[in-house]
Amino acid sequence: MSLTFQEAYQDLRHIYDQTRQAASVPFTLRDAERALAALLTTDNLWEAIRLSHVPLRALSTFWHQLIKAGLLKAHDGALRLTESGQALTQALGVAPLREATCAHCEGRGVDYRTLPEGVAERFAEIARHRPEAIQAYDQGFVTDATTLSRIAFAWHRGDLEGKAIIVLGDDDLMSIAAALTGAPAHILAIDIDERLIQFINEVARQEGLDRLEAVRYDLREPLPTAWLRRFDTFLTDPTESFLGFKTTIERGLLALRGPGSAGYFGLTHVESSYEKWAQIQRFLLDHGAVLTDLIDDFSAYVNWGYIESMRSWEWLPTHSLPERAWYYSALHRIELLRTPDLDNTAVEGDIFSDAEAATT
Ligand code: SPD
């Protein structure tokens, strides 16, 4: 079967329109192209999510439309383009993806092995005993290599040594990794989860990390006065509903001393479209923060234990548990150019879901 470009484009355009109608979240023709390229690269559903870089809400709807049109088959955790599906991609000129990730740094651009001797090993031993990730707070922690690389990156950028650090939400145990380096002046970890607070404080006591403390705090509450404009650097990896994300970043900005202070956060493709990325970037610029670094796929997440009860499970056209990491986020660094003008008020409502939320 062969198709002209015009015919193929018309078919794709129809599926794209149906997807947009059915999903009612942002989805672009470029997203459709990325999703098709991923399907040409792998037949594993989780790998297709990782490679597509398209929010799962829209991606799963697109797959369903391809299946309806006889272009894709889903079976036993596998997604395979049919002969017609392959003819469509060929006529459109879509090519399989060619990953060119650096094998040594895994694409992060920093080497955590440059951290002082023993830090990585001590961190790995401590992290073995961490609390399980729970769905109630949208937890899902990153690999040890990721946490250590975030700290190496912050050090590399001059945001660690001699600095006062605040970690907003710390299931990734960034506060512990930072403290193990001995570089920061002080580290405060805040989290709503009492299990994490106890764990971090117990580690600080046992390991003699006297510059590290953890305090229970719900980000929906105003930031306590004692933490306002006291820190040089914030580290966080927020839940990605726009409200949850904005609330976390606002608290982080409020905690920073002022111009020259820096913040780090992660943002995914799985739960955030480029429209949401743009909304976040506008918010940051409006509050005096400039984006200085963005490294996609920097953070790799360990598969959490509630895959089958996350909201996107039922969107998938075929079901099998992932066997390797599939959920990644882009590391962002921002720096303040001026003191942000922000309210420090309580936030009401659901901070864990929006139309694009997929893993909560
Ligand atoms: N729900 C499981 C994964 C949650 C990870 N939260 C952080 C997302 C990256 N900003």
The residue ranges in which pLDDT falls below 50 over 5 or more consecutive positions are: none
CATH topology of the largest domain: Rossmann fold
Domain count: the total is 2
Q: What structural class results from the helix and strand content?
A: alpha/beta
Count of separate DSSP helical elements: 11
Task: List each distinct ligand once.
Answer: spermidine
CATH class value of the largest domain: Alpha Beta
Q: What's the shape?
A: elongated
| Rg over alpha carbons | 21 Å
The residue fraction in helices comes out at 25-40%
Q: Summarize the helix and strand pattern as letters.
A: HHHHEEHHHEHEHEEHEHEE
Oligomeric state of shown chains: single chain
